[in-house]
């Protein structure tokens, strides 16, 4: 559906994007991405399970040329979301999927965006996973659903990306088909996100020669204040997560090597 506010000029502009990169929104990509690679990126099918941090990731993906998305989320935009998610004050009270649909369509009117304003459950999750090439799992660890989501993707040979916002940094865990799974970190949902933080801290210290003391401090403060979720997030971490996911999604789509779990991607200040 073309946003009517954009008019016919926008339609002509986007419809000729692959025929003339110089006049398209992806013209700057040609230094890094060939025309053939850009076509593959445009054909890839991305599943976004959740529209919180995924809302930032989705914009980065659509701006680099991904066109086919399924976004699943039942939440409404709240004032607190404006700090780390891709929404504006005017979006407050609206369904996240509706607000994100409008924003992505305003960037690329020809993007094929399917939105589902539903709650994923153990009973319905499989039907939404099928027929995708990459899945981005940002489901809250309030139940075992994130594990079930990954299990189905594993069975269907779909790579899964798990992005995490750590405030001043971000980590990305990539789970490739037939590779290691989330269970290697922790087989239960209780306090899973804190366990991920501990894993990242240990990984940074062991392989990146970084103590990330500030992240250790944030984890301790969370424990002292009995905060169940991850260390409180910042817009910086969301942006880093979007960059990591976009880079890895491109590599997977173009059959380039990626670091898969137990290795991780980490980006921070």
List the helices and strands and how they pair.
Layout: H1 7-15, H2 35-43, E1 45-49, H3 53-64, E2 68-72, H4 96-107, E3 112-116, H5 125-129, E4 134-137, H6 145-155, E5 160-165, E6 169-175, H7 192-207, H8 213-224, H9 235-253, E7 265-268
Parallel strand pairs: 1-2, 1-4, 2-3, 4-5
Antiparallel strand pairs: 5-6, 6-7
Give the key terms.
269 residues; alpha/beta; 7 strands; 7-stranded mixed beta sheet; Rossmann fold
Concise synopsis of the structure shown:
By secondary structure, the chain is α/β, with parallel strands linked by helices. Helices cover 39% and strands 13% of the residues. Strand 1, helix 3 and strand 2 (68-72) form a beta-alpha-beta unit.
Describe, in plain words, how this protein is organized in 3D.
By secondary structure, the chain is of the alpha/beta class. The protein has a single domain, classed as Rossmann fold, CATH 3.40.50. Helix content is 39%, strand content 13%. The chain contains 9 helices and 7 strands; from the N terminus they run H-H-E-H-E-H-E-H-E-H-E-E-H-H-H-E. The chain has helices at 7-15, 35-43, 53-64, 96-107, 125-129, 145-155, 192-207, 213-224, 235-253, and strands spanning 45-49, 68-72, 112-116, 134-137, 160-165, 169-175, 265-268. It has a 7-stranded mixed beta sheet, with helices on both faces. Strand 1, helix 3 (53-64) and strand 2 (68-72) form a beta-alpha-beta unit. Helix 3 packs parallel to helix 4 and helix 3 crosses helix 9. The chain is globular. The mean pLDDT is 90.
């Amino acid at each position: 559906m073309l946003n009517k506010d954009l008019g016919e000029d926008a339609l002509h502009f986007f419809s000729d994007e692959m025929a003339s990169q110089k006049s398209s929104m992806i013209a700057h990509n040609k230094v890094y991405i060939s025309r053939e690679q850009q076509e593959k990126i445009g054909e890839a099918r991305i599943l976004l399970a959740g529209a919180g941090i995924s809302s930032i990731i989705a914009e980065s993906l659509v701006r680099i040329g991904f066109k086919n998305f399924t976004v699943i989320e039942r939440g409404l935009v709240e004032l607190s979301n404006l700090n780390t998610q891709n929404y504006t004050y005017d979006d407050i009270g609206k369904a996240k999927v509706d607000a994100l649909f409008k924003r992505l369509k305003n960037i690329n009117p020809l993007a094929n965006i399917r939105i589902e304003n539903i709650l994923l459950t153990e009973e319905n999750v499989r039907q939404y996973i099928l027929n995708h090439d990459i899945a981005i799992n940002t489901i809250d660890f309030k139940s075992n659903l994130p594990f079930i989501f990954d299990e189905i993707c594993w069975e269907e040979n779909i790579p899964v990306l798990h992005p995490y916002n750590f405030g001043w940094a971000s980590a990305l865990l990539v789970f490739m088909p037939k590779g290691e799974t989330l269970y290697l970190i922790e087989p239960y949902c209780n306090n899973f996100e804190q366990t991920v933080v501990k894993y990242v801290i240990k990984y940074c210290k062991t392989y990146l020669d970084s103590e990330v003391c500030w992240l250790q401090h944030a984890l301790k403060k969370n424990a002292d204040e009995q905060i169940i979720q991850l260390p409180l997030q910042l817009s910086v971490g969301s942006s880093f997560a979007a960059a990591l996911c976009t880079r890895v999604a491109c590599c997977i789509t173009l059959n380039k090597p990626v670091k898969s779990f137990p290795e991780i991607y980490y980006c921070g200040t």
